[in-house]
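In the current project phase, the collection of sequences with tokenised folds has grown. A representative record is quoted in full directly below:
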Amino acid sequence: MQTVLSVDGLTKDFGRIRAVNNLALEVKAGQVFGMLGPNGSGKTTTLGMLMGVVNPSGGLFTWFGETQTNQVRKKIGAVLEHPIFYPYLSGQKNLELNALIKQCPTDNIPNVLELVELSARKDHKYKTYSLGMKQRLAIASALLNDPTVLILDEPTNGLDPMGIAEIREIIKKIAANGKTIILASHLLDEVQKVCTHFAILQRGNLIHTGPVDEVGKGTETVEVNAEVDNLNEILLDFSGTSSITKESGFYRVSMRDGFRGKDLNRFLFDRNVVATHLVTKKKTLEQQFLDILSSNPQK
């Protein structure tokens, strides 16, 4: 799989403050790569350096194996910070103006409007658009020259649940068309729903990177209940039980390696105990995110 982005030792200092520290990562073609981190972790600064709008203090990066040039830059579309359009122009006219600035043909405008579901509102003035529609127009603008890579900085920031869901589906459609997407976000649930890979930054340091589908793998926790008085004792007799806690009226059984919920269910059935509730709980990205941050304390 082709390496789209390679970062080695990327560093940015603002005076005595180190915003990004010796960052190293790779993004492969076709990935939807999420950059996660609390406020001040260096996500936006990193994207700014990758787009050439912030000068690095050290390190280097390459796009498609090349240093950044105008030709390489044309392969990258980006939505950074807040999108700026002319309020009294329509969505269509704003895109035509952006195409002129980018020196790309206007032939792709109907396609990108359709992709972001703004075709019906293309002739309406930008000032009449909702926040979600404005963000979708910004994505359309970034796609005008049919880039290979799309960079999004907090694409759902400030949106209501419906707006977030709309952006999520658009990101999925763009990825399905084969584009590589790099996005920064603090909405962990959204990243887990749309990203294939993710990295966690903390105070400018990369502390974790890996595939999203590995989240939740490993030992399981099973939430269980049954109409018997000594359920706790029975659960302790199960050889796959590592520990037991009780929460919200249910027993939460942490399983030993190699044991699954179906094994516990079979054990209870053999003891003539019918579980009235048995649900396997996998670790969410939020839980893993918090675990990683807590295991990497930084001053």
Summary: The two ends are 38 Å apart (CA to CA).
